[in-house]
Design brief:
F-box domain-containing protein; 129 residues; alpha/beta; F-box_dom; elongated; three-stranded parallel beta sheet; 46% helix; F-box-like_dom_sf
Length: 129
């Protein structure tokens, strides 16, 4: 007897949040939020999903190493979008930054507790530390 069809869009919000937290921000932004309107709404409106931004998950890190997911420009844009979605609740950020990104991070992440800068690009005309 075939299994009954399930409506994945009807999953309760708390279940979706739990699943999305396991996926991580990159996978939510590039995959899960495009499944349906209900999933996109949770991805856009739930700041808890964006408390840890960057390459924290092994899958995202491995795919980023291979440049399968996105270019540096796209990764920078995704970081800014994730910070906006965090609505001031970002607690951890990991990734590459430049002078402007650091300023944006300071403005948007007042709850930041963990910062891992993998690479920092200085603005022309500034001295390196």
């Amino acid at each position: 007897m075939p299994a009954a069809a399930r409506c994945w869009a009807a999953l309760p919000r708390d279940i979706l949040i739990t699943v999305f937290l396991e996926l991580g921000p990159t996978e939510v932004m590039l995959g899960a939020e495009h499944v349906c309107t209900a999933w996109r709404r949770v991805a856009l409106e739930e700041p808890a999903l964006w408390r840890r931004i960057g390459r924290w998950r092994p899958l995202a890190e491995e795919m980023t190493k291979r440049r399968v997911i996105c270019s540096d420009v796209a990764e920078k844009a995704m970081g800014r979008v994730a910070l906006a979605r965090a609505a001031g609740q970002c607690e951890a950020f990991k990734g590459c930054l430049d002078y402007e990104d650091l300023s944006y991070l300071v403005q948007r992440a007042s709850s930041l507790k963990d910062l891992c800068i993998e690479e920092f690009h200085y603005k022309e005309g500034t001295e390196e530390l």
